[in-house]
Write a structure and sequence with these properties.
Blueprint lengths: L1 H8 L2 H13 L33 E5 L4 E3 L2 H4 L1 E3 L7 E5 L2 E5 L11 E5 L4 E3 L10 E5 L7 E9 L10 E5 L6 H4 L4 E4 L5 E7 L2 E8 L15 E3 L4 E3 L5 E7 L8 E5 L5 E6 L7 E4 L1 H4 L2 E6 L2 E6 L7 E8 L4 E8 L16 E4 L5 E4 L4 E4 L4 E5 L2 E2 L5 E4 L5 E5 L6 E7 L4 E3 L9 E7 L6 E8 L6 E8 L4 E7 L4 E9 L4 E8 L20 E5 L8 E7 L3
Length: 539
């Protein structure tokens, strides 16, 4: 009776269907500790790895847990490359790799199937590291290897997940057209190890593959390349080092913001340090422009709305020439003024005090600037002026001993070129510190070649440039830096091989390596201390 009862509730066909459905549609379990262990291959249920005299048409890899297969077309790379596209799919816990029926594998050749990031466990997305299947169609597995290190050219830091790619075809365009013959990815220390290689000559290339297709096909992909072919033999061990760089992009304007009358902003596709800018005659007398990273800001006076603004831009060294034209916005828009600096300052005895605002300063009303010292009014020979940068207020006064000042800027104290001021009072604290709170740096930099030009830079720990000089026909640079803020300082030296006063990036098509960079972290500067630093430049 019991057996018949269950048959009435769940006919046998339905039971089988439920069992099949539950097996065919696994779902990730919920709850419990996070799984950080990547999937592993069950070797007893899989096609044997490292096989010789390989003749199989299908490879099966069974995992110890449920996995997903993602982006197999781009992620699964076979070296040497196959002529036909294989079929790759998941069947339960088993990955099935099936060669095309017309595929003819090369004789006496070691093949490596790299699965990249295509395999992930179902629950947490853990990826098996360096998942490969290796086999040989001949009697032996190739056993040569190449190792090395990849770092960023500018920072010197290790580059993780960089593809280091070896090509048997040594034509220059191969890196743009085909996936590599051999490859490996760098670890978190920037090290790589390409294994199971055969003797031969190779074109070698390193790539930060932004679109994960194993091709150098994007202008912003960082690259590194060897100047010549590398030779791998049974008696040599290859050790290769790459310094990654991004090719200099052709300068273009990516955005134009002209909706506010009196202000325009042009955005570019890269950072620019110099630019020739000219405005049409109707605007040129009372206008100010400023470059900041990848943007050009232009402030101009309110004018006749029937006029057309023409901005003529050129950068001769890049053969860049462009004109931006726009009609004046009809709606009057009084552009406001905002304070853009810190709320507190610590000045060394040699520092000058600047307050920075969002738009150019037109007028200063000193009656609305209150300064107190120890809660008492202070007004001894204070000079207010507009700095070389008209967005900055320059303040100078006799400073005889360490003091703490409070500055109160009331509405109307500063008026911009659009006759606008800030609406709330701005309170700022300024500490004129004792000289003992700072340190001195006596720096000596020795260059390797007097016939070469160099760009010297001193930066703080945040990479802010504090000093920069061009060095030519000399091997020695010396300078004393007084009253520096205690902390970390860095010396950069750029090899200016074409003596154009700027660092030039490399270019693969032109077979031109980027100009080399030397970086030296100095000993920490302590307060009330004089640091002697001798730096010998070695690229």
């Amino acid at each position: 009776m019991k057996h018949l009862f269950w048959q009435y509730l769940f006919p046998s066909g339905l039971i089988l269907a439920l069992l099949y459905y539950s097996c065919a549609n696994p779902v990730p379990p919920t709850g419990g500790a996070k799984d950080t262990t990547p999937p592993k291959i069950d070797s007893l249920k899989s096609t044997p790895n490292l096989s010789t005299h390989f003749k199989e048409k299908t490879i099966k890899l069974t995992f110890d847990e449920w996995v997903t297969l993602t982006d197999a077309f781009n992620q699964v790379v076979v070296s040497p490359p196959l002529e036909k596209r294989p079929n790759i799919e998941m069947k339960g816990k088993t990955l099935v790799f099936e060669f095309d029926k017309e595929e003819k594998l090369k004789e006496n050749t070691t093949y490596i199937i790299n699965f990249g990031n295509s395999i992930k466990d179902l629950r947490e997305g853990n990826i098996p590291p360096n998942l490969k299947f290796i086999f040989s169609t001949g009697p032996a597995i190739d056993s040569l290897e190449a190792k090395g290190l990849v770092v960023d050219l500018e920072t010197g830091k290790a580059e993780k997940d960089v593809l280091v790619m070896f090509y048997e075809d040594t034509s220059d365009s191969i890196v743009r057209k085909e996936k590599p013959y051999y490859f490996a990815k760098t670890n978190d220390k920037g090290a790589f190890n390409v294994e199971y290689m055969k003797a031969g000559q190779y074109k070698v290339f390193a790539l930060v593959d932004n679109n994960f297709n194993y091709l150098f096909d994007l202008p912003n992909e960082k690259i590194g390349f060897m100047d010549s072919l590398v030779t791998l033999t049974d008696s040599t061990t290859l050790s290769l080092n790459f310094k990654m760089f991004e090719e200099e992009q052709t300068l273009i304007i990516t955005d134009e913001i002209t909706r506010k009358r009196g202000f325009a902003k042009l955005a570019f596709n890269k950072e620019i340090n110099d630019l020739d800018v000219r405005l049409s005659d109707s605007f040129s007398d009372d206008a100010f422009y400023e470059l900041s990273k990848d943007s050009l800001f232009i402030w101009y006076s309110d004018v006749d709305t029937s006029l057309v603004m023409n901005i003529f831009i050129s950068l001769p060294r890049e053969n860049f020439l462009d004109t931006v034209s726009f009609k004046m916005p009809q709606k009057e828009n009084k552009i406001g003024l905002a304070y853009q600096g810190p709320k507190s300052f610590t000045l060394s005895p040699l520092d000058t005090l600047f307050f920075e605002f969002s738009t150019p300063i037109q007028n200063i009303d000193t009656s609305k600037i209150k300064i107190t010292l120890d809660s008492l009014p202070y007004a001894q020979n204070i000079n207010f002026s507009v700095a070389d940068n008209p967005r900055k207020l320059k303040i100078e006064w006799p400073r005889e001993k360490p003091q703490k000042y409070a500055f109160e800027l009331q509405p109307g104290a500063i008026t911009n070129m659009y006759e606008k001021s800030f609406t709330d009072t701005i309170n700022l604290q300024v500490t004129d510190a004792d000289i003992s709170e700072f340190g001195d740096l006596n720096l000596k930099v020795i260059f390797p070649d007097s016939s070469m030009s160099y760009i010297y830079r001193l930066t703080d720990s945040r990479e802010k440039i504090l000093d920069e000089s061009l060095i030519a026909n000399d091997t020695l640079f010396q300078k004393e830096y007084k009253t520096l803020t205690p902390g970390k300082y860095i010396v950069y030296v750029i090899e200016d091989s074409n003596a154009n006063g700027r660092r030039d990036s490399g270019n693969y098509e032109e077979k031109r390596q980027p100009e080399r960079i030397f970086k030296k972290n100095l000993e920490d500067l302590r307060k009330n201390w004089e640091l002697e630093a001798d730096v010998k430049v070695k690229f």
